[in-house]
Amino acid sequence: MSARKRVALVGAGTMGGHHARVIAQSPDAELALLIDPREAVGAAMAERFGATWRPELPELSGIDAVVVAAATEAHYDIATTVLRQDVALLVEKPVADSLGRTEEIISLADERDLPFMCGLLERYNPAIMTARDIMTDPLHITAARHSPYAPRIRTGVAWDLLVHDVDLAIGLVGAPPLGAEARLGHFHPESLADAEDVAETILEFPGGALAHISASRIGQRKIRQLSIYERERLIEVDLLRRDVTVYHHVSENSVDEGLGYRQQTVIEIPELVSSQEPLTTQFARFLDVIDGRVDAARERASFLPAHRVIDQVIARRPSPVA
C-alpha cells in the first residue's frame, strides 16, 4: 500500500475550505501546507485541519501534490510553478484565465508526464455517474444551469456555469463537438461589460448527436438539470437532488369517448452508483492518477475540449442589425 500523500492547498476561501476538509479526512493523504496571503484566514484554517500555514507557495520538497483553489487570475503562475517542480496538480476550473494559458499549462504537464486534473466537479456527481453507467446511445442532450444573481462572481456565466455542462455533454457523447453555436445575453446593470449573464449554446457532435446547454444568472431559483435522450429512453438527471429518472414510452391510444388520449410510460428510478460527496470522489480519483491507477495522459487531455468550447462561446459577439 502506498504511503499517504503530503498535499499542499493554495487558497483558503469557500472552495478552499471544502478541499481542506476532504484532504484532511482522506485516509490516503494529509494536508501538510495551506497557502494563503491572508494570515488571519489562512493560519486559522491551517490550524483547524492540522496543517502548516504559509503566505506564499514555498519550495515543494517533500510535497506529493498541490490543490489550487485560488482566484482564476492566479492559476497560471501557481500552476506553472508547481509543474516545474514536478509535482502533481489539481486546479479548480477554469484551468487559467485564457485558452492559451490553459493549453500552455496542460502542455507543460504533458512534457513532464505529470498527474494533472481540473476541478470539473459535476463529473463526480452521483446522479451523473449513474446516468453514465446506464445510458447506451445518447442522441440529444439538454441541460439547464440557472442561478440567482451573485455580485461576488465577476466572470460571465460561460466560465462559471456553462463549462460544467459542456464538459458533461462531451463526456457523455464521448467525443469533442464539431462546433458550437452560441448566443450571449448581457442584462444585469452590476455585471462587467464583457461578463455575460445568459449563454445559450448548441453543440453538434460527430455522428449527429446534439446538445443544447443553457446557463443563466438572472434566475430566481437554482436549477441544475440534464436530460439524455436515446432512441427508446429518456434519462432525466437532477444534479441538485442527485436523482435519476428513466422514462420509456410504451403506447399512446385514443380514449373511447374520443375526448383525449391515454399515454403509457414506464418509469424507472435506478439506484445511485455512489452516495459519496463529489469532492471526495474527485480527490480519490486524483490520488488514483498519482498512483498510476488512472492513465495520466488521457486524464490531462480530457479537460481541453470543454475549455476550447467556452473560448468559442465567449468570442461570440452580437451581429449588427442591417
Features:
alpha/beta, eight-stranded mixed sheet, Rossmann fold, 14 strands, 31% helix, globular, Dihydrodipicolinate Reductase, domain 2, 2 domains, 322 residues
Please explain how this structure is put together.
This protein has nine helices and 14 strands. The protein is of the alpha/beta class. It folds into two domains: 110 residues, 3-Layer(aba) Sandwich (Rossmann fold); 161 residues, Dihydrodipicolinate Reductase, domain 2 (2-Layer Sandwich), CATH 3.30.360. Strands 8-9-10-7-11-12-13-14 form an eight-stranded mixed sheet. Strand 13 and strand 14 form a beta hairpin. It is globular and about 75 Å long. The chain starts with a strand and ends in an 8-residue tail after the last helix. The mean pLDDT is 94.
- What best-fitting shape do the alpha-carbon axes yield? globular
Beta-strand content bin: 25-35%
The name of the CATH topology of the largest domain is Dihydrodipicolinate Reductase, domain 2
Mean pLDDT: 94
| Total discrete domains | 2
End-to-end separation in angstroms reads 68 Å
Q: Considering DSSP H and I runs of 4 or more, what fraction of the residues is helical? A: 25-40%
CATH-scheme architecture of the largest domain: 2-Layer Sandwich
Strand tally, please? 14
Indicate the radius of gyration in whole angstroms.
22 Å
- Give the helix tally: 9
Order of helices and strands: EHEHEEHEHEHEHEEEEEEEHHH
| Adjacency order of strands in the biggest sheet | 8-9-10-7-11-12-13-14
Derived from helix and strand composition plus strand pairing, the structural class reads alpha/beta
What is the level 1 CATH name of the largest domain? Answer: Alpha Beta
- Would you identify the CATH H-level superfamily of the largest domain? Dihydrodipicolinate Reductase, domain 2
| Poorly predicted residue ranges | none
Largest sheet: 8 strands, mixed
